[in-house]
Amino acid sequence: MTRVFSGIQPSGVPTLGNYLGAIRNWVPMQDTHESIFCVVDLHAITVWQDPKELARQTREMAAALIACGLDPKRCTLFIQSHVHAHTRLAWIFNCVARLGWLNRMTQFKDKAGKDREAASSGLYVYPNLMAADILTYHATMVPVGDDQRQHLELANDIAEKFNHDYGVDFFPRIEPLIQGVAARVMSLRDGTKKMSKSDPSDQSRINLTDDHDAIALKIRRAKTDPEPLPDHVSGLEARPEARNLVGILAAITGTMPENVLREHGGKGFGAFKEVLVEALVGHLTPIQREITRLLDDPAALDAQLRLGADRAEAIAAPICARAEGIVGFLPRR
Length: 333
Ligand code: AQP
Known about the structure:
The chain contains 14 helices and five strands. The protein is mostly helical and 333 residues long. α5 (85-96) crosses α14 (298-327). The model has no long low-confidence stretch (mean pLDDT 96). The site of adenosine-5'-tetraphosphate has 22 residues, from β1 and α1.
């Protein structure tokens, strides 16, 4: 069975972008692939996180993943810092990846912003850790949102260079799996920027935990243009905000944007936004109830994550140890 790996940062509440671009696509994979999913807290601290909040958000993220349909019995679900192979292999990859490769990463440029000198070195080498996350499981398929495509290409470059430099055929090639009409959900305030859990404006995103009123307010305030909706997808060209809202409704109702426009083309945004609010509330309410239920029993949640970490460790540690042997590290006897 193909081994699948993916992760999500506990850097805030999961957004509709995380859900539609990634989490929702992970759920069916549990039945068709050997699936490993991880709350990547090591990645989260590449930008400042309040320690208490990080701990709370890590549990909340794990609860949200289960509430969205990940079943710790059918997949391996764990917290990244609980399995040390990730950081051990990441160090080797820090020494394999070239600075020129990292300099091309657009996520670093976006997140570091204008003051690059002040960014953490962790943020810079983030893609090397991501490569280690995947390759310490010899996973070959990685379901992610479109924003991660460049990092996965880099992971393949690292795997290839490792194999070439040490004359081995050890790390496999990774296939990104970028699925669905909502592979990139955009900010509600700026249709050219992706929706992010750490965007300073809460109005830019729908959080999976937002209640009816919050969703209604954010969607009603979402930036749009003055034109009514077109009848055809070609009419969404150069209208990023309209395209985003149509894409969200299509994804949440399990259809294609052309079908949404067949039904709503010609409407103004006022009426369309009300349809979108109802669809979002209907879809997210059961997930929110389940998150609350799971967080009411943190000991049970932690026990599930501990079992997940044990299972992950059993796969990752031997692969990492073999990589260390290839590099020439003397085993501890
Ligand atoms: N806007 C998005 N549309 C579609 N997919 C998205 N993903 C993130 N944003 C969108 C996908 O969600 C998965 C987990 O992402 P992550 O938490 O590991 O990192 P990220 O891509 O940096 O997500 P955020 O929400 O933007 O977090 P912050 O604000 O902390 O940086 C990935 O598969 C990603 O593609």
